[in-house]
Design goal:
There is one protein chain. By secondary structure, this protein is mainly alpha-helical. The protein folds into two domains: 96 residues, DNA polymerase, domain 1, CATH 1.10.150; 40 residues. 64% of the residues lie in helices and 0% in strands. Helix 1 packs across helix 4, helix 2 packs across helix 4 and helix 6 packs antiparallel against helix 7.
Length: 146
């Protein structure tokens, strides 16, 4: 029998593939799903049938309370997404209600950087000897997000 994590990851990868790749979404959702599965394991939850809105509320109260509002809501949203993919009958729980706090602002416009800003950041990372950060920065700067 497969565990919650492996079943969820297979579904995440399948959903990402059907949406045209979306590696970033897949990777982020996988990490968030792993955290939820760790919570489930520590609470004796082994099957999808055992996951209820109350379990998600416990997760929000236990693991997300120390996170920023936006991050906590994103974690809950990711879990809702995986649960919906794995169980089409899942009724999503409101991340805003589960977290119990509101964001003070939500970005409506993408962050964009000009060539000069990117070159300055690259130079600074090189000066600091941050080659790993440099590779990540360059990748994130040039990879299309839409």
């Amino acid at each position: 029998m497969e565990n919650l994590f492996s079943v969820g990851v297979k579904k995440i990868v399948s959903a990402a593939a059907s949406r045209g790749g979306r590696y970033g979404w897949c990777a982020t959702t996988r990490i968030r799903w792993q955290l939820f599965c760790n919570f489930c394991d520590s609470n004796g939850i082994e099957k999808f049938e055992q996951i209820t809105p109350e379990v998600l509320e416990m997760y929000a109260n236990d693991r997300c309370s120390a996170l920023s509002v936006a991050t906590a809501q994103n974690y809950i949203s990711s879990v809702n997404t995986v649960l919906k993919i794995c169980n089409p009958g899942w009724v999503s729980c409101s991340p805003k209600n589960l977290v119990g706090r509101s964001r003070c602002s939500v970005r409506t416009k993408s962050l964009t950087f000009g060539a000069e800003q990117i070159n300055c950041a690259i130079a600074e990372l090189k000066n600091l000897g941050q080659e790993d950060g440099l590779c990540c920065f360059i990748f994130c700067s040039i990879w299309p997000t839409a």
